[in-house]
Amino acid sequence: MFKKIALIVLFVLVSIGLAFLIYTVFFKSSPQPVINNVPEQGGTLPSIKEGGARIIADQELEVPDLSSAEFPKAKDIKVLEQAVTEVAQGGLTKSEQVIFNRVSATNFKATNNQMFYYDSAQQNFYKLNSAGEVIKMSDRKFYAVQNVTWSPTKEQAILEYPDQTKVLYDFDKDKQLATLPKQMQDFSFSYNGNKLSSKWIGDYSDDNYVISSDPNGANFKFVEPMGDKVDDVANIWSPDSEIMATYREQIDGIRQEIYFINEYGKNIHSLTVDGTGFEGLWNPAGEKLLYNVFSAKTDFSPVLWIANGQTDELGGGKRYIGLNTWVDKCSFSNINDDLVYCAVPDYLPTGSGWYPEFADDLPYSIYKINISNGQKEKLAEPVANGTRVSIDQIFLNKGDEKIYYTDVNGYVYNLDL
Questions:
Q1: 385 contacts 70 by C-beta, under 8 angstroms
Q2: Which of 106, 138, 140, 302 fits as disulfide partner to 117, beta carbons 3.0 to 4.6 Å?
Q3: Three-class secondary structure of residue 95 per DSSP
Q4: For residue 189, what is the enclosing H or E element?
Q5: CB 262 within 8 A of CB 246
Q6: Pairwise CA distance, residues 209 & 50, whole Å
Q7: Nearest of 368, 302, 354 to residue 66 by alpha carbon
Q8: Burial of 180 (0-12, 13-18, 19+ CB in 10 A)
């Protein structure tokens, strides 16, 4: 009798286990992505308030993998030739390829209406002048240049190599001017080209600082300790040189506080933004600050905002633009400080703020934005070789008659506005 009871109990337990397994596999819903606020860990920026949550690392955010989502790639969108206009009229617009080698280290803040770039295949530097001519900048070979930061006012650049060698090179004089310490990283020239901000990365987090110097490394100055918050600091100058870098700190799950670092320790108003992933860009007059952030409300995709950019009014008058893109795909007009032109993907997968590579192959359009009133206008849907295009960076010529842009493969095109 006892044996029969035991067999019956065993049968019931096995049945319950199988039922739970079937429910788990076929009927239980998957958990939703969760964002966790993580406590601060070590390292400080002393002039910035203590406490609060830090930016959530990528591995701490369970963003669904949409990199292979069924969004049409630009190259797969075929366009009939008769549907394309020669000049931008708001729709499909013809683009012409102007540089046929892949280029890297392009920089669209070059002076005198010229675009400077490095051709890694040729191991040479070139410039594209206002007449559309490609000119070699030096007969020397520059082997394996990994990164380039151009001066906005001179034909000078900081060249970085894989062995961490960093040099200031003057292409006008065709000579190397200085070798910079290997600890210096993430360079940014001031608008007048006379100052340099960068990060000093030491062997320990306590050695990490925001620093300023002359372009050749002279007049070196430790400005602000970063500790382990290096990724939250960005070197970016305001046009009046009052600000040389920004520091972003998470307030809660949906807001960040942006602090502005002055070379001489001056106290400057902070900016509260409605999202995370802040990246900013001043207009040439320094009156406005264009920036992008993302949050759950935007499906973790970047959106553009505008705020007052002058030091005494910094952060006031925030205005939501609503275009999904990044400020590094924007370029301000050369003739009107209130106008900015941006490359905007036609659509973005969820999580593109965390993973910008999701947008690498998507079709882009060109928009014009008036930052004084927030009005935006689609100018063109660029077409090259019979298909839509993806855009990495854009640049306007001196009179705003043409837009030059690079695609994600490093080829350079232009279109007529």
A1: no
A2: 106
A3: coil
A4: strand 184-189
A5: no
A6: 17
A7: 354
A8: buried
What would be the CATH architecture of the domain defined by 58-416? 7 Propeller (2.130)
Q: Where does the pLDDT of residue 309 fall: very low under 50, low under 70, confident under 90, or very high at 90 and above?
A: confident
C-alpha distance across the termini of the chain, in Å: 93
Two tokens, residue 129: 């002048």
Contact 288, 309 (CB under 8 A): yes
Q: What is the dihedral of CA 216, 176, 184, 160, to 10 degrees?
A: 150
DSSP 220: -
**Confidence at residue 41, expressed as pLDDT on a 0 to 100 scale:** 33
The two three-digit tokens of residue 8, written as one number: 């019956």
- Distance between CA 92 and CA 266 in Å, rounded? 49
pLDDT of 90-102, one tens digit each? 999 999 998 888 8
Report CA 168 to chain centroid distance, whole Å.
24
- Tell me the sheet residues that pair with 303: 293
Q: Does residue 46 carry a pLDDT above 80?
A: no
Question: Which amino acid is it at 61?
Answer: L
Which segments of 22-103 are extended strands (E)? 92-94, 96-99
Strands 134-136, 156-160: pairing is unpaired
Q: What burial class does residue 14 get, using C-beta atoms within 10 Å of its C-beta: 0-12 exposed, 13-18 middle, 19+ buried?
A: exposed
80-86 CB contacts, 8 Å cutoff, 24+ apart: 81/386, 84/383, 86/416
Domain ranges of the chain: 58-416
At 162 the three-state DSSP class reads coil
**CA separation for the pair 124, 145 (Å, rounded):** 10
pLDDT at 56 over 60: no
- The alpha-carbon radius of gyration of the chain (Å, integer) is 25
pTM over the 0.90 mark: no
Dump pLDDT digits (tens) for 356-385: 999 999 999 999 999 998 899 999 999 999
Sequence-distant (6+) residues with CB within 8 A of 228 are 41, 42, 43, 205, 208
